[in-house]
Amino acid sequence: MLGALTLIIGLQVFGTVLAELLALPLPGPVLGMVLFLLVLAVIRRPWAELEQVNNFFLANLSLLFVPAAVGIVSHLELVSPILGRLLLVLVLSLLAGLAVSALIFARLARRFTPACDEEMLP
Amino acid sequence: MNADLTPLWVYLGRDPLAWLLLTLGAFVLSRWLYERAGQSALLNPMALTVCQLVLLLSITGVSYDAYFTGAQFIHVLLGPAVVCLALPIWQNRRSIRRSLPALIPALLAGSLVSVLSAVGLAWALGLDSTILLTLVPKSVTAPVAMGIAQDLGGIPELAAVLCAVTGIFGAIIGVPLMTRLGIRDARAQGLAMGVTSHGIGTAAAFQVSSVMGVYSSIGMAMNALLTAILAGLALLFWL
User: Fold this and answer.
1) Contact state of B53 with A70 under an 8 Å Cβ cutoff
2) Do A56 and A106 have their domain in common?
3) Contacts for A117-122: CB closer than 8 Å, 24+ residues apart
4) Residue-number span of the structural domain to which A32 is assigned
5) B146 near A CB under 8 A
6) Mind telling me how many Å the CA of A21 is from chain B's nearest CA?
């Protein structure tokens, strides 16, 4: 348990330090993720506990975004005069982005890399 | 509020644990509702939790800073959770390598469409240039988005809010929309979720399937990198 947790937090801290030192435009955790990939490439197979701790984090990922998203509450005044237009822009742009990337992927995948069973949705 | 309860409320409001408990409680309740409603995407647990808490803070007048004294214990786990996205990517490395011919064009197109459609629409609707620049990183994971907005001359705090709103919308409408478009490939849906709706979309993608979550993680990480590079180039040549 603690070994796995120490590795994961250690990689995040190391990633943060590295991003700072190299002046990379990436946050520490994202670089930590890249470093974790390198660690996995070396050890090949994660030990059982590492997998358990990892799964715990991912299973509860959506909870972890809640405190940051509640931050909307302190910017309501800045946003409210242009709220309607902003929401329209965000929703339309989101729909366009979702449709374009999913359709392009699906079209190209059908031709070049057909999905196997476990990659298909029911 | 009932006068007899006020001292208790003031006492509890000062205790960080109360905010931690309320955040966890609201989430457990939201997830229960989500399960009860047959996992309807409209009842996205994260969006539901945020709505409850924003409503509660607005009604009680408690500041976000006060709320965060308790909520920070959850927030601090976000970094390690992002690191954890590496494991499913590693476990699915063969699938990813195989799908690169579809993944790379979809990523580039999705990233460009997200930025250009947002800025173009906002310009057409007459929003001012600070807002246009703040909209550039709206599909990027919040910590990177704030940096990009700052570099471009936008408003970092507003960028974080726009990201959260985009992510929440994406988590709610993403899967139903793409399914309606006839897309059954979990890889395509996942990548689109990550590119447009970053971490919040990725969390929703993992709730559907692990393959979708993996492709969403990749979409999020690559889109953060790509938008940061595009913004850097824009600064160098145009702004």
Assistant:
1) yes
2) no
3) A118/B211, A119/B95, A119/B185, A119/B186, A119/B187, A119/B211, A120/B184, A120/B185, A120/B186, A121/B179, A121/B184, A121/B185, A121/B186, A121/B189, A121/B208, A121/B209, A121/B212
4) 1-64
5) no
6) 16
